[in-house]
Amino acid sequence: PQLPHGHMALPSFWKVVEDSLQQSGAQLRAFCQAFETVAPSPGTQALTPAEERKVLSLVSKHGPDKLYQVTSNTSGSR
């Protein structure tokens, strides 16, 4: 089957491609904005007193440069 733009002049074809990409880009931007509205990125969460004591204990034992907060899934090995 022949595509509808099979007999188009080259400049017209590239115009169709450009328009399609601009439309897809606009749709993607709108989707990203909607997604951010529905599921905002996680912010800082307050620690419970027990969690705060644990963090302070770890910092005093190992130092602040050895303590990391994991904010996403991790994989791999040491």
What does this structure look like?
This protein has about 80 residues and is mainly alpha-helical. It has one domain (about 10-65). It is about 55% helix and about 0% strand. The chain is built from 2 helices and no strands. The protein is elongated, with a radius of gyration of 26 Å.
Task: Set down the secondary structure blueprint.
Blueprint: H1 10-38, H2 49-62
Distance between the termini: 54 Å
Outline the biggest β-sheet. Answer: none
- The structural domain count equals 1
- Strand element count: 0
Category from helices, strands and their pairing: mainly alpha
- Rg, Å, rounded: 26 Å
Protein name: ARH37 factor
Q: Can you tag this structure with a few keywords?
A:
single chain, about 80 residues, mainly alpha
Write a concise synopsis of the structure shown.
The protein is mainly α and 78 residues long.
